[in-house]
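Internal ticket #5521
Category: modeling
Description: The requester needs a full-assembly model to guide mutagenesis choices. All entity lines are attached below as received. Residue total reported by intake: 860.
Assigned to: D.W.
Attached entities:
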Amino acid sequence: MTDRDISSAAQHESVVKEATNAPARQLTGPPWLGSIYQRRGIDLEWLTVAIVLAASALVFFGWRGLVSVMIAGAGALAGHLVVDGAVRLLARRRSRVPHLHALNLGLLLGAAMPVMQRWWLPAAVGGAVGLLAHVVGRSHRLRVHPVVLVLVLIWLAPIVMAPGAEGGGAPGWMLKMWEPIDAVLRPQRLIVGDVRDATAEASIVAWQSPFPPDAPDAIRRTDTGQLLLSQRFDMLQDRNQLVRRLSTGELAQLSEIFVGAHIDAAGASSRALLIFLGFYLMYRRLAFWPVAMTALVGALTTMFLMPVWQAEADRYVSVLSRLIELGPAASITFVSYVFFATPMTLMVMVLAPGATPMSRSGRLVYGLIIGAGGIAAMWWTGQPQAAMLALLAASLLSRPLDALQRSVFLK
Amino acid sequence: MARIRGGMEFRQGAIVRLPAPPRTLTAQPIRLLSRSAPRVELGEAVRHGQVLADAGQPDRPCMISPIHGRVQRIWTVPAEAGGGWGILIEPTEPTATTMLSVEPPRGRTSENWLEALRRFGPWCEGDWRLDLVAQLHAVQKHPATMLICVGLDAFPPYPDRSSLLTSFPDDAVLGTQIAADIVGARRVLMLTSQASAVVSRVKPACRNFRVPLTAVTNLYPSADPRLVLWVHGPGRHKKLGPNALPTDRGVVMIGPWTAIRLARWFTNRELDLAQPLFIGWPEPGTPMTPAYVLAGQPLASVHGALAGSAGALVGRVVRGNPMTGQPFAAEHDGNGALDPVVPTDELLLSVLAPMRPPKPEPCISCGWCAQVCPTELRPVRLVQLLTRAKTDRHAAQRTRRALEWCIDCGLCSHVCPTELPLAQSLRAARDNAETAVSLPVASEHGNAG
């Protein structure tokens, strides 16, 4: 019998009756107070988070950002309803996944992926998340966040489908589905502008710089996280590399990253908003601060220990030793970029609570895996999205980590 | 100061001030339930303070009549209803004297005190059933090293013990000191909530009588004796076994009313037969309604909201607090159902809000049940293990061992967002395991926590 098999009260009752021959009436009794919170309430909390993220997509990516999030949400709902209908038809019972939960997952996915050139991708992956919600997630044996699973697939799919040296690979139209819109609305055209009406070349001026009134609605920018990770060794070798990219605007400024005016996930580009939402979830007890704290500690420690090839010395040195040589200002800037220009903030503050272990010690280990694994994956692959692999691995371990709770009374 | 892990902070309710117990109350018919055969006969006139039944065992208190009256009826309670005898006394006077003029025993000889306390028992309060007589009997074999007066409220929204402490701070502290003398405990501790209204009243009294005061955050269920011992008990071996008394660890625990009653007996040379009764209301912020009552008087005579048969009160009123309280048991005297009466061992009754029928949904592994569990169990996992306990010996061992440490606080069910009946399932399994199912002996390695 699986965990899912006993997850309704009726089953609890039959289970207890079967195990102990207890009469059913014994299941009534104290507490005489109703449940302090309801599943529906939790889904509404998450819906609030998803709506805020969708609103953020509207600000910096215009109606296209919002529509992208909505399409993913609608796709998830559609996928969920298909499964729900099939379950009703074949198993003659209701599915255990609430509609609101599927909608939340879809909206969260839409907010966690960039605005795409084509609408097909958000619709397709939204549908996929609606299907996956019935197989994986908090209520299932495989406690993997469906959104994280789909985000990893979105990242891996174009890599797998890309033509190799001898050609082949997926058809071009399919690869085009994965092309993001690498532009962000300029300040004068926020909310109302069309993000596809963008400058021809990637802008290397700061987002808040003055633009002529007849300039396109959006400016094309380079992905800061991608640029940082691809140039990480150069920047650690030479302080001027970091300074030059910052002064020219090639790297978005940290203030822009915090506000959300850079190329990133549609609804999760603002780091300030993500941090705020993370604290909100902690306040509502849907997220736990020890996870975020241990993730931060694990990430910092791992980053400091990562190897960097030093040509002059003809040997590997640690990132920490390079940071010490770069000086405090450059070091702090570099470390801040690694945290805030990559999906680490989204992962730790918003996605990680979706698969947190139930035990206190388990949460610490879970946070460490996310932090350390996320940095290690990004460092070795040079891809910001690789950080999601760590969250995937951590959520796969989530159920075994539950067992780390050991009562002192039982020792 | 160490705190229990887990638990939950409920909003503290308003503390109410009680006047001194009245010397007289309107006489009401008294109905008492005795486990041992009555010493009185049908139609016999009884005086207040007269022994009605005596089990003859040194750890069992006698049952006395709180009024002058006449034995109206005696009937046998069937074994399936708990067994024993019911005694109904009709008052012969319009008012009942609530003070019994009797001298407390002289000196500190615990045998004398045991006999005196047993004669005028029971001496327990609240829903943790720690009778002073049973504990005093136990310390004859295992000397006590510590006495704790647990002034923490069992359920903070209904601060019954805090109300008693603030109403009679000097008596509570003096009574604690007297009780410590009786049991021969060297260490004394007055444990109260951190509420300033309580601390400001109790602290001067503790200073006067040199009783150490420990004020802690009243985190539910930190008033549970097992948790009190775990956090505040002496020595290294703080754990209290599932069926053990605190006296097994050299600790005697009393509640404030026991201490107040002892002190008033000592100073006034009169023993209170009336007891305070608090009625908690479901509306947040509504203060409790206090009253002085006699054990065994009809519940309907205390407050209109308590009127009705036991069946009618199901889901409306419980003995104790809403987290752990029990419904009134149905009683019959052969002629029909009897209306409930004021219990002898309970100072709090809770009027319940209408409850929406729960709609259980699949567990979402939120972990709240594990987070609030004061004994650090994983209730939902434990319920899962119950499914395998019948066929899997290892699962049965783990289940049984963990079930022993479920203190039945009800928090897991209260916080479960999917409304799973976790506490109810665990209670059903434990009750059944205790009475009928012989699970394999617990293993040292089994762990479901």
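Resolution: model delivered.
Comment from assignee: Chain B touches chain A through 68 residues (CB under 8 Å).
Ticket closed.
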